[in-house]
Amino acid sequence: MTFYDREFMEGTRGTQAVDWEQRIDTQRLREERTEKALERLRETELGAILLVSDPNIRYVTGLAMTGGSGADHYTLLTENGDIVHWDTADHASNQRFNCPWLHDIRYACPGLGNVPRASGSSSAREFLRSKMAETVTEAMDDYGVADETLGIDIGNGSLVSAFEDRGVSVDVSTAQAVMEDARKIKTDDEIECLRMVAAICEAGFQTITDTAKPGMRETEVWGEAVRELWRHGAFVGGGYVTSGPNTWPKHQANTTDRMIRPGDLVYADFYNIGYLGYRSCYYRTFSMGEPTQAQQEAYENARNDLYDVLERIEPGATTDEICQEFPDEEGEHMDWYDADEFWQMTTNHWAHGLGLQLYEVPLIWRGLSPDHPIEIEEGMTMAVETMQPADRQGVRVEEMVVVRENGVEILSQWPVEEITVIDH
Question: Which residue ranges does the record assign to the Peptidase M24 domain (predicted)?
Answer without folding.
Answer: 192-405
